[in-house]
Design brief:
Blueprint: H1 3-18, E1 23-25, E2 31-33, H2 65-90, E3 112-119, E4 123-130, E5 135-142, E6 148-151, E7 176-186, E8 189-202, E9 205-217, H3 222-225, E10 230-233, H4 247-253, E11 261-266, E12 276-280, E13 288-300, E14 303-307, E15 310-312, E16 315-316, E17 324-328, E18 335-337, H5 339-349, H6 357-375, H7 380-386, E19 390-392, E20 397-399, E21 405-406, E22 410-411, H8 413-437, H9 442-453, E23 463-464, E24 475-479, E25 482-486, H10 488-491, E26 492-495, E27 502-505, E28 507-509, E29 519-522, H11 524-529, E30 530-535, E31 540-546
Parallel strand pairs: 5-10, 6-9, 17-29, 18-28
Antiparallel strand pairs: 1-2, 3-4, 3-12, 4-5, 4-8, 6-10, 7-8, 8-9, 11-12, 11-30, 13-14, 13-31, 14-17, 15-16, 15-24, 18-29, 19-20, 21-22, 23-27, 24-25, 26-27, 30-31
């Protein structure tokens, strides 16, 4: 054993002793970690996007709101499922965790099929090999990022690295040194390390000279509890850290696939032996029904496209009638959407929510005036400016507060108050619009909007009474001219069995203002219901009913 490795193990030994009461090995050889509930996230109503994580560490100080949105959603989803895992540990319930097994080969053409493992419908992962001979790692195939990283043998001071296999460069005959520093932020977690180059084996395909990150520091407990070792990004090079060429790009450039597409089938039956599969170079017809409906990629960074209306019980919510942006993201467990829509879903499903004081004050103080303005055919985008709660910038309302900057560009609490009031007003206008379509009375509208003010999404997840799932309404997305419907059993996630079961809403809130938003992130809840093809040549995403 080398000097550095011995030193690292000795340094970490005291931490392992401290954690010995929390970490135990079951009869099946799996290490189980007792988790504690983490504090609730910061206020999502006044600060819908986190302060800063860089989209590309090589791009100076540029911060992109979509990257921030993805990070926020993943942080919240990770917290929800971490709490579910903690409940699982407390109840001593044992989930099936069979081995992933060998990679199956496709019968014809240049394709690779990688079977996926499903962990409680929250994480899907498969096996790859790095180096020659291959060193195996379990990774998430993530369309919301573009880099490949695995733990490094030089990771000494992170507890997570001692619970996952580590890449040892000296054991590979095809390793090439690089050394460029790199870091990636995922939600509230992050990894730090440096680039190396080696061959990567995926199914029966071998990608030569692939750059990847050796993670030497994995702070926090997110990756410690993760069932995967690393992440293989399938997004576009535009979001790759340091501009590194993604694995998928090299697959295409090296002629390893005869069709420049890859596809996902995610099995939503967590107790089934087949967790799903990803096919590089094609798709498997036995995992979908009918033909795919394709929509064009509108931003070459994430797999982003235009989405039309969103409906609850077949009725429009009024949020996306003029179009919204959406991202198909295999690395996100849930579906994230505008907070106003999620509040409507909570109200219809009886999901637990939290009250929003700004919304309540706006409705009680200005509700009747807002309705009268809408009745007089005042454009909805101007209603809040007419009553003095927002300014109008020619397209939509903006905060009416006078901008004050303190310190290093930070806005004052007065600005935040104006922002919150303006946002609450515009949300209430959207709700009222949807009620106008249904010809409800003024009193009925005010009562409905008042209920929604008490149904705002909770930052720690929204829970539903498991006994009432069958009576809930469906929700639908309009994409590419087709309506994609989700039934309650598809968008409600059930954790546990019997009277101890918990049912979690598959929706969470995400507010991205125009022109980037409104934005939806369609994660595993949606991709599990609809087989998804990512077409690199045609720059499009296709959805078909999963089989």
């Amino acid at each position: 054993m080398g000097h550095h490795e011995t030193h690292g193990i000795c340094t970490i030994l005291s931490l392992l002793l401290v954690w010995s009461t929390l970490v135990s090995a079951g009869d099946d050889g799996l290490v189980r970690i007792a988790l504690k509930k983490r504090p609730a996230m910061e206020d999502i109503y006044n600060t819908p996007v986190p302060k800063s994580t860089r989209e590309n560490s090589g791009a100076g100080s540029k911060v992109h709101p979509v990257r921030e949105a993805v990070n926020q959603v993943r942080a919240q989803a990770q917290r929800i499922f971490t709490e579910a895992a903690a409940m699982e540990q407390r109840l001593k319930r044992r989930w099936s965790h069979r081995g992933i097994g060998g990679n199956r080969r496709v019968r014809e053409g240049y394709q690779a099929v990688v079977p996926l493992k499903n962990y409680v419908n929250a994480q899907y992962f498969g096996q790859i090999g790095v180096g020659s001979p291959p060193q195996n790692f379990t990774v998430v195939f993530d369309t919301g990022s573009a880099n490949l990283w695995v733990p490094s043998a030089e990771c000494f001071f992170s507890l997570a690295c001692y619970f996952h296999p580590k890449y040892v460069s000296r054991r590979s005959s095809t390793y090439k040194e690089n050394g460029t520093p790199a870091s990636i932020h995922y939600g509230k977690g992050a990894i730090f390390g440096f680039y190396s180059q080696d061959q990567v084996t995926i199914g029966n395909l071998v990608v030569n000279n692939q750059e990847f990150i050796e993670a030497t520091y994995e702070p926090g407990f997110t990756l410690l509890a993760a069932k995967f070792d690393g992440i293989l990004g399938l997004g576009f090079k535009e979001i790759s850290v340091e501009g590194s060429v993604p694995v998928w790009y090299n697959m295409v450039a090296q002629g390893l696939v005869n069709q420049h597409v890859f596809s996902f089938w995610l099995n939503r039956n967590a107790n089934n032996g087949d967790g799903g599969e990803i096919v590089f170079g094609g798709s498997d017809p036995k995992h979908y029904k009918g033909s795919h409906t394709y929509t064009r990629v509108t931003r070459k960074a994430y797999w982003q496209f235009e989405m039309g209306d969103f409906l609850i019980g077949g009725k429009s919510t009024g949020i996306c009638v003029d179009g919204c942006a959406a991202i198909a993201d295999s690395g996100t467990s849930l579906i994230a959407g505008p907070i106003g829509v999620i509040a409507q879903i909570n109200e219809r499903t009886g999901a637990t929510g939290v009250a929003n004081e700004e919304c309540k004050q706006v409705v009680s103080g200005y509700g009747q005036e807002m309705i009268e303005l809408l009745k007089s055919e005042t454009p909805p985008t101007q209603v809040c400016s007419k009553i003095g709660l927002c300014a109008f910038d020619g397209t939509s309302g903006v905060s009416a507060g006078i901008k004050r900057v303190t310190g290093e560009g930070q806005t004052t609490s007065l600005d935040s108050m104006f922002d919150a009031t303006c946002n609450a007003c515009e949300m209430a206008v959207t709700w009222m619009q949807s009620e106008f379509v249904q010809n409800h009375t003024k009193e009925g509208m005010l009562e409905y909007v008042g209920r929604l003010s008490h149904s705002m999404p909770s930052p720690v997840g929204s829970y539903v009474d498991c006994r009432h799932i069958d009576s809930l309404q469906s929700v639908s997305f309009s994409i590419g001219g087709r309506i994609f419907e989700l039934q309650p059993e598809q968008y409600i996630l059930k954790v546990g069995d019997g009277f101890m079961a918990q049912c979690i809403s598959g929706f969470m809130s995400l507010d991205i203002p125009p022109p980037v938003g409104p934005l939806w992130i369609l994660g595993d809840v949606f991709m599990g219901a609809y087989h998804t093809i990512f077409d690199y040549d045609k720059m499009s995403v296709g959805f078909a009913d999963s089989a």
